[in-house]
Amino acid sequence: MQCLIWFALAIIMLRMIRDLDMTLIRTFVTTADKASMTAAANALHLTQGAVSQQVKRLEEVLGQSLFERDRRGLRLTRSGERLLDKARRLLRLNDEILAEIRGGAVAGRVRVGVPYDLVGTLLAPVLKAYAEAYPQVEISLVCASSPELAAALAAGTIDLAVIEERVGPSPGECLLIDRLVWVGARGGAARLKRPLPVSIVADTCAFRPAVLSALAEHGLDWRTVFENGNIDATTATVRSDLAVTTWLASTVPADLDILSDAGLPALPNFSVNLHLPKHATQPAAQAFAGHIREGLSRYRQAA
DNA sequence: ATCCGTCGATCCGGCACTTG
DNA sequence: CAAGTGCCGGATCGACGGAT
């Protein structure tokens, strides 16, 4: 009898809950992202048991099962899928409110200079993370070759720049060092043609002097196929086997080949450097610099 | 078939913190 | 200050996959 009373009370209490607990929402989103309670527990610095309990509490509050406990993992139920997007929005709003009210919010505008080949590869996750962390900052992205970005920074038309340079002394801060490699279509024949068809994204490209110098030293005849400053066009040219190109190893698309054994001249390593203006930088730019350092640190460790 | 490891669920006692 | 809440660490259980 007493059990029945307690059960009834619990049901009444649950029906009275009108507010979602942000802690439970965060745990739910993390668990969904990781597809594992153990992994979510590690990410949230909790124990697996605590995560299990929080998910269960949220399911009780909502009166819906959010996960299908399945064999060796978790899968979102339809209710879970419906909740996930809204839960993310709730978290973003929550974080935004906290940042604003606490007064330390970074706001304003940041103009970021990024080389063509890094914007969609190494820096894409950095840009995404920054935009999520500082939704009130307006980001202006300037894509250009590294020499053009250096000039723009000196002219004060951008607030910070990521610049690719030959490894060596630089006023910039080295974020990572990567191999410059020859790239061609998978199983393609362009690498064998003479003169070698070479596509370089732009004639001001930072890699161009090093590539031309290597070709000259190797005595290899070559010709330019496409140079209009468009990375997508260059990628399409290479993918179509019309030409080979040179990229940093960590930016090579998975469906293209790194031509390490094609008789092409060895290329030097390049440094990806962060350049900030000499005068004081805005908080939004400082925060962006921090995101880039953190975002590229994993590549630095992997290299 | 059996053993071992992993994962999630659940329970327990203890602890820290909050609330009334 | 007592009661309530939530977490932790530990233990145990069942389900399952992989190796032997």
From TrEMBL:
Organism domain of life: Bacteria
GO molecular function, one term: DNA-binding transcription factor activity
PROSITE patterns: HTH_LYSR
Domain called HTH lysR-type: residue spans: 20-77
Pfam families: HTH_1, LysR_substrate
InterPro entries hit by this protein: LTTR, LysR_HTH_N, LysR_subst-bd, WH-like_DNA-bd_sf, WH_DNA-bd_sf
Keywords for this protein: DNA-binding, Transcription, Transcription regulation
Family, similarity comment: Belongs to the LysR transcriptional regulatory family.
PANTHER family per UniProt: HTH-TYPE TRANSCRIPTIONAL REGULATOR LRHA-RELATED (PTHR30579:SF7), TRANSCRIPTIONAL REGULATOR (PTHR30579)
Protein name per its UniProtKB record: Transcriptional regulator, LysR family
Source species of the chain: Mesorhizobium plurifarium
